[in-house]
User: Fold these one by one.
Assistant:
Number 1:
Amino acid sequence: MNASALPGPATNLQTWIAARAKWHPAEIVFWLGCLLPLLPASLLPGFLQKYWIFDSYLQLLSQIAITALFAISLDLILGYAGVVSLGHAAFFGLGAYAAGLIAKFWFTDPLLGLACAALLSGAIGFLASFVVLRFHGLALIMITLGLGQLLAEGANSATWLTGGADGLQGIRAGKIFGTVEFDIFGQTAYIYALMVAFLLFLLSRRITNSPFGLSLQGIRDNSRRMLAIGAPNQWHLRKVFTISAAMAGIAGALLTQTTQTCSLETLTFQRSADVLVILILGGVGRLYGAIAGTIIYMIARDFFSDVNPQFWYFWIGLLLIGVVSYMPNGLLGGLNWLLLKWRRA
Amino acid sequence: MFTSIIGVLYDGFAYGMLLFVLSVGLSVTLGMMNFVNLAHCAFAMLGGYVTVSLINLAGWPFLATLPLAFLAAAAASVVLERALYRNLYGKSDLDQCLLTIGIVFVAVAGAAYIFGTLQQPIKVPEWLRGTWVVGNFTFGVYRAFLIVTGLVLAAVLILMLEYTRFGATVRAAVDNQRMARGLGVDVDRVFMLTFALGSGLAGLGGALAIEIVGLDHNFALTYLIYVLIVVSVGGMGSIWGSFAAATVLGISDMAGKYWVPQIGSFLIYLVMVGILMWRPLGLFGKR
């Protein structure tokens, strides 16, 4: 992405990677800002209190954290490794149903449930990678779409397991670490979703700044050359596909655990398409692009679908046309470009 | 059993011909420019709405509206090609997908705004309705009309591609675009014409589809998936491929809906995944 930041011949690779991975103050401010909605309104000066709306939006905020995690998982394969997927909701749904079924039939510990969901969707992702990664271009888009639809249709007909169109009934809520309960205001849910999303964001940040992450970007930009310098392309791609599937599964499991519901909607084509749109709006190949895209998309959807859900897609469509035609690197990329221009002027 | 097999084959083949008319344009333009045009079915939807409006508002006969459906879709496609698509030639598949899916979203919302979200009713002429009964079998007349139209269009397209000068330049541009340019073929112009022709055919397909599958504002999204399946299974840039794939998918979709309705569209996706595993470039694809 940043051609200007390539290491010169004299730079030590280790220092270059370390410099790349350094935390920008804005990042720290952003993540601390995520904790703000948890402040009780009573702590604020009186005249601000009536504008403090966050606590009534905690549910939306948990949804944002979960969707952002899902978008980051797609960004790992799409933005960094260049593997387009129109069926990523398959892994999201696998995780969601795994967490739901575990909580229904087995045990209710949320963290163990997350781990199991991650293992399952990661394992399926690993198996799927042997099929999916053989394809390129249109065939890749179609095969991911086809496999995703097969799973969705399968879950739809396996009523005995998934509850079919009615969704999975009877998911029990557990306590985190055996002590913290999910409350009806969604405060625990938000903290829980945010913490898991943050930890996995740290992992993704580490991955993208590691030599492994750099070789993924190499494969994306010039796979032949990577082969020529001896990189095991297929294994790199399989690894990242598995990680991405596991992360998507965790996002799905989070949704099930925080809402105690699990429906076929988690598996739909619509969800795969939405997350792709989110990623493009924010900017692919940058983790904060996935987050910014999610925040903008989810808040705008919440706002517009109150007005008229029919026409929400009209604006999304226009936005997509605009972003693709005029801002090839997404909204964050566009901002970055403006910032660079402003600094130079 | 035998009766139902004949019935499924007949209905499936008719449905396949519909899919063929809807998708052949996308296959050829994809093969030529590598441009992933997901808005293809939006043009089909436009054709459908042109036919519906002319019949219901202006009282035109069904057959007379078909050329206009073709022309409207072709004209709209040329405008969009000039205004938006042109900037994205040679960009990544993903960018093209997203631009065109944006157009689809706008088209779907626009159709819902203008025509509402209900199914659009049309009246086909008396002689196209009803069925023929031959022994134990019943054949829908409209489906026979679809089959004849599809076969005639396939024959005309193949003859045009094989025996006219325009067809030769199209084939050259599909097989090796750089070489064609080098030999002085104006690929951009050829592409524009092919694109208009293909979108026009989609518009015609949209108009023909109303009687079989109905028309509502979601048509552009619902049938997009079917069209993409036909193109990827048939192989890009091949008329024969689209024909074969449309037939296979039409029949397997009908068979699935007839014999195992509870699994929905499972079968059609299974067929697609299976064929793509066996031949990643599609049945007739070269690249």
Note: The first helix of chain A runs from residue 13 to 20.
Number 2:
Amino acid sequence: MELELKKDSFLDDVRNIRSVRRSKEQPERSEGFLYLHEAITGSLFDGKGFHVEDIDFSEFTYEDLEEYKDFYNSHLSERIRAAGLLFSAVEEAAAMFVPKNSFH
Amino acid sequence: MIPLLKYEITSLFWYISKLKAVYKQGGREAVKCFRNFGADTEEYEINCLDKLENLPECTEHEYLREEFEDSNEIGDICGEKWIFESEDMCEYYRLLQDLSQRKLITDDEYRFFDSEMTDYILHALVNKQYNDGGFHCHLDDGTMPDGYCHIEIYNYHDGSFGAFDAVCGIVAVFERYKERLKFLEEEFTVKDETEVK
């Protein structure tokens, strides 16, 4: 499997996964949309884990959820998948390297 | 690894979407039922099969076996059956009958309240399942001579069965019985006491 990544833009992309804020360049995001990003994607990105009890279902509408799903699928999903593949490859490589196998 | 990179959270959105729909329809207790479910959705359906049996309203769970005509042979497991009941559910139907017999509600009102719960069971539980014979539901309101108040659901293994939807549906249904019983008691029994005075 080949995976072509541009280092600088990839790192920016990964950082941008965490930060979704209202800005002049981005469309107006509802409070519910931002809540979902923080509660789900943000928590998992920060390593906090996730449980359904962490979600306050009164903080977002069904429409906010649909909008966030579309945003996730169109903007975040591929970057996250690429980051996941890269981290897996690095972890595998690190597991294969043990000091006694190094050659001088 | 960062948890976000480990899990397929697109499917997590699917489950959150279902829970949001349940929450919106007033199924608060159904949502609480899944409070410990995490980001790994691959275990959701299996965990929900266990959860069905452990719901407080579940009084019986058994595996169904194939039956053979003219034979005592024990067949393979072909499905499962759960029986659910609650005091609120039984009291709901008992009170409806009582109010009807004492003419405190009209025949139209009786039919309305009776069919209201049947329709809710269809909406919250039955219609959320695939229609390929894997899921079956039976309601007994306890009004027939040999009957007793309960809901049976069946999972036939040669069809599809959504365990997550079944848990959501059962919990929401019994939450609705509790709410509607309270309504009947407040609306009609208080009025009854007032008229007697």
Note: Chain B touches chain A through 26 residues (CB under 8 Å).
